[in-house]
Design goal:
- This is Lysozyme inhibitor.
- InterPro entries: Inhibitor_vert_lysozyme_sf.
- It holds the Pfam family Ivy.
- The protein contains six helices and six strands, in the order H-H-H-H-H-E-E-E-E-E-E-H.
- The protein is α+β, with helices and mostly antiparallel strands and 163 residues long.
- Strand 2 and strand 3 (92-100) form a beta hairpin.
Length: 163
């Protein structure tokens, strides 16, 4: 318990003892803690939301869903394509295919691998605005390294002039 006590040698000066310093610090810490709890922190009110939180709120949720949509030539299968090729890698059988956007194959392509039994699919989407720009490649379905290599070889086979 904290109490005011004058040290015997300082009694004539009415000074507090050194033993009282921790008591005063404890009181100050408690008072500051209470004050901080009572003060409305303005920075908290103006703090921007987290990006992941926006994905759950309208209208951001709708915009996020639209952003994830594939172009019609992919999602509706309205594409120019090649016959699938049966391949094997890592002891598993697959069907390998290639699609592109009609009338714009040079800039919009999708290489795709299906598990032979149809239980899984992976792909790599290649898009660019025009031939003067590099392709943006997006992996689809989280392919492992073997599937990625298979997809990139397929892309190279259908684009012999590409690096």
């Amino acid at each position: 318990m904290c109490r005011y006590q004058a040290a015997p040698e300082d009694a004539h000066l009415h000074l507090r003892s050194h033993a009282d310093v921790p008591c005063r610090l404890t009181r100050l810490i408690h008072a500051c803690s209470i004050a901080l709890l009572l003060i409305d922190h303005p920075a908290r009110a103006t703090e921007p939301p987290q990006t992941a939180d926006l994905l759950l709120e309208a209208p951001y949720r709708r915009a996020y869903v639209v952003m994830q949509r594939f172009p019609d030539w992919i999602s509706r299968g309205q594409a120019t394509s090649t016959p699938v090729t049966p391949v094997a890698t890592g002891g598993h059988a697959y069907l390998l295919g290639h699609l592109c956007k009609p009338h714009d194959c040079g800039n919009n392509q999708l290489d795709i691998v299906f598990a032979a039994d149809g239980h899984a699919a992976w792909g790599v989407l290649h898009v660019r605005p025009d031939a003067q720009h590099p392709f943006l490649q997006s992996w689809l379905g989280n392919p492992d390294e073997d599937i990625q290599a298979l997809l990139l070889r397929n892309y190279a086979a259908h684009n012999p002039s590409s690096p």
